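Narrative progress, year one. The postdoctoral researcher (J.K.) led the effort to move from monomer predictions toward full complexes, under supervision of the PI. The following entry was the first complex the group processed end to end, covering 616 residues in total.
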Amino acid sequence: MGILVAGTVALDDVKTPFGKREKILGGSASHFSMAASFLAPVQIVSVIGNDFPKAHLDYLAAKKIDTSGIEVSEEKTFHWKGHYEYDMNVAHTDETILGVLTKFNPNLKEAQKNFPFLFLANIDPEIQMKVVNQMTNLSFVGLDSMNFWIESKQKSLWDVLKKADALFLNDAEIRELAQEASLIKAAKIVQKNGPKIVLVKKGEHGVLTVTKDFVFVAAAYPTEEVKDPTGAGDSFAGGFTSYLYSQYLQNKDNIYSMPVIKKAVIWGAAAASFCVEEFTTEGLEKTSIEQIKERCHDIHEFTSFEKH
Amino acid sequence: MGILVAGTVALDDVKTPFGKREKILGGSASHFSMAASFLAPVQIVSVIGNDFPKAHLDYLAAKKIDTSGIEVSEEKTFHWKGHYEYDMNVAHTDETILGVLTKFNPNLKEAQKNFPFLFLANIDPEIQMKVVNQMTNLSFVGLDSMNFWIESKQKSLWDVLKKADALFLNDAEIRELAQEASLIKAAKIVQKNGPKIVLVKKGEHGVLTVTKDFVFVAAAYPTEEVKDPTGAGDSFAGGFTSYLYSQYLQNKDNIYSMPVIKKAVIWGAAAASFCVEEFTTEGLEKTSIEQIKERCHDIHEFTSFEKH
């Protein structure tokens, strides 16, 4: 069956120290799906405008991503325009046109309700709740959010977190949600009050993972030339979730074991490292599953040491 | 013989969100020595004023740190006053009184010249050069510096780097020295033009190590409550250098092997994690060698994962 992802499919204008691109494929669901497509069938639930290039849909379909759940509406496609300074850890938003997104309110088809894995990308937590409540056969729910929802709809966010198995937030967001400056304490607070797994994305500094049983501190791959960090977080989530799905196919009861979660984190970090090497999803497009695996081995080599 | 460390012994006023302390033991050589004392005999080369409390010297001596190389001068002891905001990654300097430090110009005794290990803490690179040039039997030279010397005496700094085996800088400093925004590229540039080992200190994000043969990305121990980050970098250097010294005693030819350097980095990270848990050197004072070893095991547990 695979992974159902509800999120945005967008047109982005992006400027970084390495160049500038206009109306390129963007959106959380696009990045997530590209990264997840190596290990799992993925179907996107989203909405686009009639200005959206068919070439972008074909591009996703070429990776065997099911785009039949993307509605086409009369309004404009969601558009994000942003830039990065030399410190590429921070995205600066220049313009956001919500367009079709203001009416995004998915009613799932029967086949969609039956997916075992769901990823709720960063959208209104009330919409996230509506989607998860339509699902009938879930084994895993991943969820992303952002400062905007933490500030404007925190009660709804905590409500939907009770339905999530894994939460993906960056370091500033987890501190804000927990109201705690220490990252490890903040992650533990959120984990106790919400999802089984809290994944704190720290950009070039890697990922901190907290469950009730263990803490895992994972390094990012030390990429020499980051061209465009857009989508790194969603690519990480896509890699992580698809790795968990591949293990679920082998043994449904095993996906919350420490070795599996750790390997899923590293697979996600490897996928994200290919994302940032090129603009939009081009880095992942030209990558093979063998290259992702090789990069997991590289991260092992870069981080492993003998016991004292 | 052990490690000779040339650096500052100071009186600090420190304010953090967890409290305020005045005239406490500070200085790069103090922090380095406390961290190194678990695995190596250490002698300090420094200068203090006649206002320096004897209790502080006794405190160092209680850890078997040799303070006989600390000159006493007529002027005031080097004084640093600073504070930290909630983001404790950045120290804000409120006042610096150089005092005795303006005349620090060590002439080593014969016995000091014969030490096999030397650590040149963050002082004028011309003084660092003068010290290293007096040594007659060196197997290892570690060196720390800072933005002030990178900007004001860069030529002298590159000169003394040619004599160093390991360079300790933080992420902003290595970027400035290499004139390169990418951290991994910056570290590789400096490594090619200077010391065998470049150690980039990233605070709560750990340490990046680059040699001509390998890259090692080490996590910091995820400390829940950082009370005072002052001295964390020097404690890391002290832990690292002393671990290398302990291996040197067993096999002189082995100290630049990858497994040894990796374990030295983790030992340094563990020592630094005890430093930041309390003000000044109190965290390391009450720590045992078994606790440092245990924390190395914890870091192993927090960071290790099975190969894909």
